[in-house]
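Backbone geometry:

***
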Amino acid sequence: MKGASSITTLFLDVGGVLLTNAWDHLSRGRAAARFKLEWADLEERHHLTFDRLWHRFVDSCKRRND
């Protein structure tokens, strides 16, 4: 095909999560209440994981743009 573009990126919606906040504080709060989890513990674990992954993502984006 003349002038056709090649595909460089493929986005997959894994479990209906893309373009949603999927696991915001309200969702975590409902899950904590439903499963009788300690809210403070759940929040601490969430931030230990999420914050680390988010900062790595932002850093990798910055490196690609430098």
About this structure: The mean pLDDT is 82. The longest helix spans residues 39-65. Residues 25-65 form one domain.
